[in-house]
Amino acid sequence: MDNELVGGVFRNVVNVHTLSPEQDRRIGDRTLSDVYCNSCGNLLGVKFIEVANDDEAVRAGYFLLRRKKLKKWNGQEIVD
Ligand SMILES: [Zn+2]
Question: What are the domain boundaries of the chain?
Fold first, then answer.
């Protein structure tokens, strides 16, 4: 996996948005959607749309965000 993507896994993130479902990406048995900052539009990471195996650390609806892209975090939300 791209090292830049190693960051934090979040269950809830605010001030972000994803693109339309047509632009979701399939990687292995996961479906991902890119996540963008609402205020500056930067690509922050991905949201897991579908995860085949529910026993994995990540589940559908979770976010994986690049740590260095986050200006502030408290474990639940981004304040940009
Ligand atoms: Zn931003």
Answer: 3-69
Q: 54 C-alpha vs ligand 1 centroid, how far in Å?
A: 31
Class assignment of domain 3-69?
A: mainly beta
| Average predicted confidence (pLDDT) for the chain | 80
Is pLDDT above 70 for 60? Answer: yes
Using the mean position of ligand 1's atoms as its centre, give its distance from the Cα of residue 70 in Å. Answer: 8
Q: Taking ligand 1, which is a single-atom ion, which protein residues have CB atoms under 5 Å away?
A: 37, 39-40, 80
User: pTM value?
Assistant: 0.75
Closest residue by Cα to residue 16 from 60, 66, 51: 66
**Distance (Å, whole) CA 26 – CA 24:** 7
Structure tokens at 65: 């965000």
Confidence (pLDDT) at 70:
62
